[in-house]
Amino acid sequence: MELQNNVLSPEEQELLRRAIFSQKQTMRAFVHSYGCQLNVSDGERIRGILESLGYTMTSSWDDADLILLNTCAVRESAEDRVYGILGNIKQYKRKNPDLIVVLCGCMASEEHTASYVKSHYPYVNIVFGTGSLNRFPALLLEHFQGTKFACDTGEYDDVYDGIAPSREHPFKAAVPIMFGCNNFCTYCIVPYVRGRERSRKPQQILEEVRQLVQSGYREIMLLGQNVNSYGKDLETPVSFAWLLRQVEAIPGDFVIRFLSSHPKDATKELLDTILDSKKIGHHLHLPVQCGSDAVLKRMNRHYTIAQYLEIVEYLRRRDPGFSLTTDLIVGFPDETEADFQGTLDLIRRVQYDNLYTFIYSKRRGTKAAEMEDHTPPEEKKKRMERLLSLQREIASAHYQRFLGKTMRVLVEGESKRKGYLMGKDNAFIIAEFPGDPSLIGQFVTITVTETHNWAVEGVLVQEETTCRK
Hints:
- By secondary structure, this protein is α/β, with parallel strands linked by helices.
- It has 4 domains: 10-152, Methylthiotransferase, N-terminal domain (Rossmann fold); 169-277, Transcription Regulator spoIIAA; 282-401, Transcription Regulator spoIIAA; 403-460, CATH 2.40.50.140.
- The protein is 33% helix and 20% strand.
- The chain is built from 13 helices and 19 strands.
- It has helices at residues 10-20, 37-52, 76-95, 113-120, 136-144, 190-194, 202-214, 240-248, 268-275, 293-299, 305-318, 337-350, 377-398; strands at residues 28-33, 56-57, 66-71, 100-105, 126-128, 150-152, 172-176, 178-179, 198-199, 219-223, 255-259, 283-285, 323-330, 354-359, 406-414, 420-425, 430-434, 443-451, 456-460.
- The strands form 5 sheets. A 6-stranded parallel sheet has the order 2-1-3-4-5-6, sandwiched between helices. A 5-stranded mixed β-barrel has the order 15-16-17-19-18.
- The chain starts with 9 loop residues before the first helix and ends in a 9-residue tail after the last strand.
């Protein structure tokens, strides 16, 4: 297989393959991706590159000839964990001096990382950033030609197009539609490590989705740091709502999901597109971060709670059971008790199905890291406990709206409970029910018989009936 979208000529590609297999007939690569789903998608492309070069994937670094860590930089604790792992890898390098160690991803895109790794972990052979994914083969060739530390943390280009991913899941696929972020929230490092927003061309996205559906994929997850901004930077601008309608028009039985949405760009056109769709999941993950306008301003989020609630109220007017989830940060610098009460009030008003919650942690390189913070850590922990307790109470009551109703569920796998399967419905609600593993990867219909504060239970319906949208 010839590498595409690659900076190597065909002759250099052949030279690289000969170098890889000069000592062993089988070369094994261990690839591990940390962090968000976009990172996981990058990892699938990296696996695709390595397989096209002849590497066999392994799930253990014990027998690996190449170890690649695709890193996350959202929190400093994530970086510390990676540095700890790099320290442990040293023992494998001693046992196998020819072992190739690669560090890539968001962490590798930070200015200080390459020099720090070179000086503190001299056995790391290759470092490349999120903008250099398609140049990975060239860096490998440099290594085999004698470069002790091959590094490329340059600017982004069309790093995905033409690189076939090696997908880890047989019926669920993630399709990145854009990269980078223009929002510069004061707590977030992403714009600094993934750059400004860049949209992939619609025809490339649609062709990728079309091939996936033809291959039997049942769930398509469209990814971006802020998918709602998709298409604004294209030569001929389009909207994300337009792209969703084009994806829905592709023939086949599949569900469309997407992450992540920014409230400031959640237009009525987008909301109507979701509500009127039969394939787009009737669920919106709409990160609010907190319930205080004062804190939102310090976060640089560009919306107010009133504007956020307008979106929620519009969705619930048209579909009272519409599923909403969100991200919340507890303890942002100098969050007051009144600010926190605003968050609790918002949770009561919106009635979220699920929350993804975080206690604020300082991130070097962001503006929030320079802000004064007089709230003690113990107080932040107590606030988090109060928030989670309230959410459990709300979700327990809110999930009862599903009792006795039918759901169309994509079966994802076996539950932890023996004899049970689990999956998600159109609105991303987790469902568990008795069933045979042969149903995994298929759509089934269940009747909900019991609800919890995180999921529902049900029984299979023999024949599909009209389901809740």
